[in-house]
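Give me the 3D structure for Alkylphosphonate utilization protein.
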Amino acid sequence: MSDLPQCPACQSPYTYQDGLMYICPECAHEWSSADQGGDTQESGIKDANGNPLQDGDTVTVIKDLKVKGSSLVVKVGTKVKNIRLVDGDHDIACKIDGIGAMNLKSEFVKKV
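Predicted structure for Alkylphosphonate utilization protein (112 residues):
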């Protein structure tokens, strides 16, 4: 008998483990073993697809974003490496090539 947890999304008993992640083959839900301990994640910041973000992740911008106070635009598909999660409305601090240091909202990025 397996001691793997049931899927939290659909309660399927047919989950399997892939590295540090658990995966449900019925609904394709993925979650980490750290998610099992009551508090889902320390920061709770998620990308546009609902994937949890962590410091040091690489993300891609999913929408053209105007830079306030400038005529510059962060284009769709811009890859941002080594993000840092911060408190506040704009919860990702990062450096973008050609633009510099700025803060982004997690709802406009997806994890790579």
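DSSP finds no helices and eleven strands in the chain. Let me know if you want a second pass.
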